[in-house]
Write a structure and sequence with these properties.
five-stranded antiparallel β-sheet; 131 residues; globular; alpha+beta; 26% helix
Amino acid sequence: MVQDITGLFTKSDKDKAVHLSKEISAKFTLKIDDLLIAYLSCTEGVWTFKYSEDFNNQEHTYRYISGFPDLEKTYTSTVLWPFFRIRIPGMGQPAIQEILKKENIDKTNEAALLRRFGYRTIANPYILIAH
C-alpha cells in the first residue's frame, strides 16, 4: 500500500515518455524577485538556456544556478535539464491526469507540461514565466 501511495507522487517509467518534439517551440524567463535571471527556450527539439545581462551585471546577490556555472555561455541540450525537469509533476497523480484531460494537454509534450506546471516549485524560489 505504501508503494501504491508513493507511486502517485514519484516519477515513473511512464514519465520518461515525456519529450520535446521538433515541431514545438516555446520561450520562458526565469526570475527571482524583480530580477530577470535567465532565458529558457526550445526550438526544433533543442533546449537553450542563457543568463540575462541583468543577472550578469548584478552584485551577485544570487549565485549561478547549479548545472549552469558559466554566466557567459549559452547552454543547449536535447534533454531538459533537471533544474527545470523537477517542475513537471509525475504523470501518475490523479489530480495531474485530471488537469491534463480538462485542459487538453498532451502528457508527452515537455514544453506544454513545463508551461502549465513550471511556474513555481517548492524546490527553489525562482519563478518560470511562459511567453
